[in-house]
Design a protein that fits this description.
- This is Cytochrome b6-f complex subunit 6.
- Keywords: Chloroplast, Membrane, Plastid, Transmembrane, Transmembrane helix.
- It comes from Polysiphonia infestans.
- This protein is mostly helical.
- Helix content is 94%, strand content 0%.
- It has one helix and no strands.
- The longest helix has 29 residues.
- The chain is rod-shaped, with a radius of gyration of 14 Å.
- The termini are far apart.
- The model has no long low-confidence stretch (mean pLDDT 94).
C-alpha cells in the first residue's frame, strides 16, 4: 500500500511538472 501511494504521489508530481513546463513553453511562444 505504501508503495502504491508513493507511486501515485510521484505520478502526480511528474504530471504537475510536465504541465507547468508545457504551459511555460506555450507562454514563451506567445511573446
Amino acid at each position: 500500500m505504501s508503495i502504491f501511494l508513493s507511486y501515485i504521489l510521484f505520478v502526480t508530481i511528474f504530471m504537475g511538472l510536465a504541465l507547468g513546463l508545457y504551459s511555460s513553453l506555450q507562454f514563451i511562444k506567445l511573446i
